[in-house]
Amino acid sequence: MPVASTVASIDRRDLIDGLGKGLRVIEAFDDEHPQLTPSEAALRTGLTRTAARRYLLSLVHFGYAATDGKQFWLAPRVLRLGQSYLEAARLPRLLQPFIQRASVQSGHTVNASVLDDHEVVYIARSSSPRWLTIGYAPGVRVPAHVVTPGAVILATWSDEALDGWLATHEFSAFTPQTNTDAARYREQVLEARKLGYWHTEQQLDAGLRGMSVPLIDRRGRCRGAVGMTVPMPAYRNGAHMVEVLLPLLRETAQALRPLL
Known about the structure:
By secondary structure, the protein is of the alpha+beta class. The protein has helices at residues 17-27, 38-45, 49-61, 79-88, 90-106, 148-154, 159-168, 182-195, 238-256, and strands at 65-67, 72-74, 110-116, 119-126, 141-143, 198-201, 208-216, 222-231.
């Protein structure tokens, strides 16, 4: 199951709704919507056009957005929000020396990641010079169904929570091999639950294989995943990759467990 949230324990009277609405406006921008008018922002956030315009103008005033008077777009300053997590959170700093050791031993890039709603977010990485840098820089977000951390983290959820997630996930295709079938993906997650790891190939990028194991803390809760992305020529096949790399990933996760 996902780590319990403290949201439910917060009294509604202690909340500042305006802050939440402002964050919703920031999140309204994405790859398909790099620029928004107030009307478009209102449609994507559920706010009125007047309210959306005021939030957009406020973001411009504080340096988090820019405008030409009609369209609005995010400014580089907004990256500070994510960078603050990477610099202040305990988990990325805790993981770094362990994944660095695994990278040196394996000769591959090792990543640590967490699940944020329907996306895997990479929070730490250690690269190896043996191959061209492969993997995802800290802060990168990827649809959960195309990378192995998604499967191993979801495998720790209850069936009910998993089914709720599947019902709202968008299974987009990135390569001809990408699995876009929710029922099949559910079977894969259940198989990952039995195995305690998952590996795939060419789900997001052609020519790459990936493998991950869950990071389980002292209380038995999943805190994320640690994994590797490797070029397909590095191993004869997926089974060979698992044989060589899985013991190291499991050793890394086990070493971290008392500290999580």
